[in-house]
Design brief:
With 248 residues, the protein is of the alpha+beta class. The chain contains seven helices and ten strands. It has two domains: 64 residues, Orthogonal Bundle (Arc Repressor Mutant, subunit A), CATH 1.10.10; 159 residues, Chorismate lyase-like (Chorismate lyase). Bound molecules: 2-acetamido-2-deoxy-6-O-phosphono-alpha-D-glucopyranose.
């Protein structure tokens, strides 16, 4: 038995959280592994049931652990983080994390741009644009529902490409010669509903992150307007902030 420090500066539930975090960090408890029961944790660390429960509740809340009714508490698979620094596509993002990217094409068509798409792509509403809806998979698990509206001269040729297998960004750059240079992106919290929830395999009302991204070419012409809905429990947007700008 390892007794936690009673009179230390850190509350004991917090000390237990740190121990669990360390076990997960070092893969002593890998993703999917069941953690010891509350009773075992109490015995092992000489703490009360309430202290053990508080630590677990907090770690479930943080997304490090998850509970399954009647089965116990398990180590969650780490979220996938998108670094909001460089312009990368889904395929590239997943590969850089050793996650297998995948896509299921839901619809692919030429489509008259609605007001929102026309505005972002600087077109007249109703202009024909290429529209692709995909369910994006990470290691075969649904991660996001993504709608890409693409506009460039001859964009209808994309109808012949195999977008279940190929990366859209890669095709735009290598086959169509576009230079994807920068993007503006917004992220908002929402709840999943209807078809989205079904496709993502989550309950109606579960949290999702909704993004809108406009990608520009080197002449600052908008090329793609993408709206995506990511599972809130699987995805993190990460950004590194600096207090002082190097140029000042
Ligand atoms: C990302 C982009 C999306 C782009 C896609 C291309 C966000 C929010 N969106 O998902 O705009 O269409 O990558 O992915 O990150 P692909 O190259 O794998 O087809």
């Amino acid at each position: 038995m390892t007794n936690l420090v009673k009179a230390g500066p850190l509350p004991r539930y917090y000390q237990l959280m740190e121990i669990v975090r360390e076990k997960v960090r070092t893969s002593a408890w890998p993703p999917g592994a069941a953690i010891p029961s509350e009773r075992d944790l109490c015995e092992q660390y000489g703490i009360s049931r309430m202290t053990a429960r508080q630590a677990i509740v907090e770690l479930v809340h943080d997304g490090l652990l998850y509970r399954e009714q009647g089965r116990g508490t398990f180590v969650a698979t780490p979220r996938i983080a998108q670094h909001l620094l460089s312009l990368t596509g889904f395929t590239q993002d997943m590969r850089s994390r050793d996650v297998q990217p995948g896509a299921k094409v839901l619809t692919v068509e030429m489509w008259p741009a609605d007001d929102a798409a026309a505005d972002r792509l600087r077109l007249k509403p109703g202009s024909p644009v290429f529209r692709l809806r995909r369910l994006r998979l990470a290691d075969a698990e649904p991660l996001a529902v993504e709608t890409s509206v693409v506009s460039f001269l001859g964009c209808d040729r994309l109808l012949d490409d195999n977008l279940a297998e190929e990366s859209l960004y890669h095709l735009l750059e290598s086959k169509y010669g576009l230079v994807l240079d920068q993007a503006d992106q917004e992220v908002e919290a929402h709840s999943a509903f209807g078809e989205q929830a079904t496709l993502l395999g989550i309950a109606e009302g579960a949290p999702v992150l909704r993004t809108r991204r406009v990608t520009y070419d080197a002449r600052h012409q908008p090329v793609e307007y993408a709206t995506s809905v990511y599972r809130g429990d699987k995805y993190t947007f990460y950004t590194h902030l600096r207090r002082h700008d190097d140029s000042s």
